[in-house]
Amino acid sequence: MKKNRLEVNFILQFKCLTLEDKYLFESYIDKHNILSYEYTFPSLYLWRKLCNTKYAVLDDAFIINKQEEFKGSFFMQPLGYKKENLQGIIKKLIEIRKAYPSNYLFGDVNEEFINDIREYTDFNICSTKDINDSEYIYSTSELINLSGKKFHGKKNHYNNFVKKFNYEVKEVTTPKIKSDCMELLKRWHSVKEEVDKELIMETDAINDVLCKLDILKLKTIAVYVDSKIVGFSIGEKYANGTMANILVEKADINYNGIYAFINREFLTQQFNETEFVNRQEDTGSEGLRKSKQSYNPIRMEEKYLVNLK
Predict the structure, then answer these.
(1) Residues 124 and 141 grouped into a single domain
(2) CA distance 172 to 233
(3) Looking at the predicted structure, is the pLDDT value of residue 11 above 80?
(4) Inter-residue contact 275 to 242 (CB < 8 Å)
(5) Could you give the dihedral angle defined by the CA atoms of residues 248, 249, 252 and 256, in that order, rounded to the nearest 10 degrees?
(6) Tally of structural domains, the chain
(7) For every residue of 54-82, which 3-state class applies, written as one string?
(8) Residue 268, CB-side half-sphere exposure with 13 Å CA sphere
(9) Nearest Cα to Cα of residue 271 among 233, 229, 303, 223
(10) CA gap 163, 86 in Å, rounded
(11) What is the pLDDT of residue 78?
């Protein structure tokens, strides 16, 4: 009976992630050098409803639980844990996991955390590289300068947009521009063959974040052609200001070169002091993979799925 009571108590400690949890989260993430965008507060907040993101503090470690299609419920790597407490933390998480439909105990973890499990616990590890979730990392200066043969196509697309269209670049600072962004998002969805649950939730998530740009410390860009919005993007700086994370990027493909333009212009205006750009994963989509590879990543940020015995 004691085990059952312990299990229930820990389940009840988990709460939904809210904006008010930002400073608590940041007090734990500051102790780590995690380069995955998954561990920035704006990323967690943006997709909190889609992933049913919850958290608890366990043995002075910040524990995040979320759900993803085909993976079920899993824990992200604990934040702020003391290495001598890792064995006990994981034992409790294994008990808590019994209440959730789950294929994996941990997800979105890096090699450093896996090595800590090996060194500081007696669990046997079964880890799988989550290939479709690997994040594309680029050199900021390369994407701004577009120099050399490998960027010849992107530079042509950028120059074609600049020469062809009467454009204007703005930050998303007024209710009118925010409304224009949402209108573009509707147009973007309208060309999709099917608008599924994820796209509907994406609309709500972006609308919410556009109302909280300042408190989330987000950067923005909106591109207009002849007074009509044709693209917008939302991003952030993280990893002590060395990395840019592109959270949202939407554009009207009827304007040839818009994606090459908005990518370069956003980095030039808001992220020119960063070293790297994280453009996130391709989720196994062949089209996304081809697009992200065309920008010539310098490396991939690998993530792993983990079970323990």
Answers:
(1) no
(2) 9
(3) no
(4) yes
(5) 180
(6) 2
(7) EEEEECCEEEEEEEECCCEEEECCCECCC
(8) 11
(9) 233
(10) 58
(11) 97
pTM over 0.85: yes
Closest Cα to residue 170, out of 230, 250, 244, 246?
A: 230
Of residues 232 and 12, more confidence is placed in: 232
Is there a domain that residue 287 lies in? no
Q: Which residue has the tokens 């693209």?
A: 231
User: Which structural domain range is residue 81 located in?
Assistant: 2-132
In this structure, what CATH number is given to the domain that contains residue 46? Answer: 3.40.630.30
pLDDT > 90 in the chain, percent: 85
The structure tokens listed for 95 are 């008990």
pLDDT, tens only, 200-236? 889 999 999 999 999 999 999 999 999 999 999 999 9
pLDDT of residue 109: 97
Last residue of a domain, one of 85, 117, 132: 132
Query: Is there a single domain that holds both residue 275 and residue 149?
Result: yes
Q: Which amino acid is at 188?
A: W
Helix (H) / strand (E) element for 244: namely strand 243-251
List Cβ<8 Å contacts ≥24 apart for 71-74.
71/103, 71/104, 71/107, 71/305, 72/100, 72/101, 72/102, 72/103, 72/104, 73/97, 73/100, 73/101, 73/102, 74/102, 74/103, 74/104, 74/105, 74/106, 74/107, 74/108, 74/305
In-domain check, residue 297: no
Backbone angles phi, psi at 298, to 5 degrees: -90, -20
What's the pLDDT tens digit per position in 50-70? 999 999 999 999 999 999 988
Q: Are residues 151 and 236 in the same domain?
A: yes
Q: Residues 53, 44: contact at Cβ < 8 Å?
A: yes
- Six token digits for residue 220: 């923005």
